[in-house]
């Protein structure tokens, strides 16, 4: 009677597989980051429009929605940067000794990252746990102790340093890519529902839809609100969006633009 044993893949093959799975999760995070940015832009424009039309209550709701979206976006972006660092470290592994050196900080980075993502993108969090288990099993099968048993203090410090750097860079990128809100948010407003759906499905947010107000504006009032709207939008004007935000017909917006131009208050280019 003969017994066969399943041959385990070579170390390099396992590392390549782990890197591939990490890159797959990285792509999912990038997709989520893009969707969050698009959603924030939509809420930001609504906030600007509500502010320009004098509806501070609605503007505050949209501003709070932006704040919650940006909190999630920062976590996702920091997670992207951390996973990129993990991939770079694994790409240097050539033998079990290299893996033993790199595995301690890698395990710490993945553990912290999956914890932060658990309430946002559970699918990615679960996959990171599986990747960590794969790498840890590789050490165990090679006769090395598991990472949990051998994690030195300096490795934990190294992992914390990587995570702190990722968070700092994410903060900087958020400041560069997300415009400043026109008014401080109110902390009592309802926030985003969690968990966030995974990439490939719509990102759902909860914004209370307030009824549109039918306001009759005099010409001077409309011109003033239009001028404020243009200032809030950085000199850009979309007639349809402006008319929607101000609750007036597009033709009235066109007339108000012409009046402001004739008075020298704006220059149409």
Task: Work out the helix count.
Answer: 9
Strand fraction:
under 5%
Output the structural class: mainly alpha
Shape: rod-shaped
CATH topology of the largest domain, what is it called?
Ferritin
Report how far apart the termini are.
Answer: 88 Å
H and E string? HHHHHHHHH
- Record field, number of beta strands: 0
Q: What share of the residues lie within helices?
A: 55-70%
Low-confidence stretches: 1-6, 187-214
What's the domain count? 2
Rg on CA atoms, Å:
26 Å
Report mean pLDDT, rounded to a whole number: 77
**What is the CATH architecture term of the largest domain?**
Up-down Bundle
Report on the biggest sheet. Answer: none
CATH level 1 class label of the largest domain: Mainly Alpha
Oligomer: single chain
Description:
Helix 7 crosses helix 9. The protein folds into two domains: 11-177, Ferritin (Up-down Bundle), CATH 1.20.1260; 219-262. It has nine helices and no strands. It is mainly α. The longest helix has 42 residues, at 11-52. It has helices at residues 11-52, 56-90, 96-117, 122-141, 147-150, 153-177, 219-232, 239-246, 250-262.
Tag the structure with descriptive keywords.
single chain, 269 residues, mainly alpha, Ferritin, 2 domains, 9 helices, 68% helix, disordered N terminus
């Amino acid at each position: 009677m003969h017994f066969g044993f399943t041959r385990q893949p070579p170390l390099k093959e396992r590392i390549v597989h782990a890197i591939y799975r990490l890159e797959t999760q990285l792509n999912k995070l990038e997709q989520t980051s893009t969707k969050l940015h698009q959603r924030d832009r939509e809420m930001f424009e609504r906030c600007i429009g509500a502010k320009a039309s004098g509806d501070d209550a609605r503007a505050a709701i949209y501003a709070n929605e932006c704040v919650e979206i940006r909190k999630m976006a920062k976590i996702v972006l920091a997670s992207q940067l951390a996973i990129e660092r993990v991939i770079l470290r694994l790409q240097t592994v050539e033998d079990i000794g290299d893996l033993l050196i790199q595995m301690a900080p890698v395990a710490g980075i993945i553990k912290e990252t999956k914890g932060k993502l658990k309430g946002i993108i559970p699918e990615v969090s679960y996959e990171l746990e599986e990747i960590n288990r794969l790498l840890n099993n590789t050490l165990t099968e090679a006769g090395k102790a598991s990472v949990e048993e051998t994690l030195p203090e300096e490795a934990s410090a190294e992992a914390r340093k990587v995570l702190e750097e990722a968070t700092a860079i994410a903060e900087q990128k958020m400041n560069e890519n997300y415009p400043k809100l026109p008014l401080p948010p109110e902390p009592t407003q309802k926030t985003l529902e969690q968990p966030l759906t995974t990439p490939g499905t719509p990102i759902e947010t909860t914004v209370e839809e307030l009824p549109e107000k039918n306001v009759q504006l005099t010409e001077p009032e409309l011109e003033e609100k239009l001028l404020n709207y243009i200032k809030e939008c950085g000199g850009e004007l979309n007639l349809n969006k402006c008319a929607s935000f101000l609750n007036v017909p597009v033709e009235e917006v066109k007339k108000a633009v012409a009046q402001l131009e004739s008075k020298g208050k704006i220059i149409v280019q």
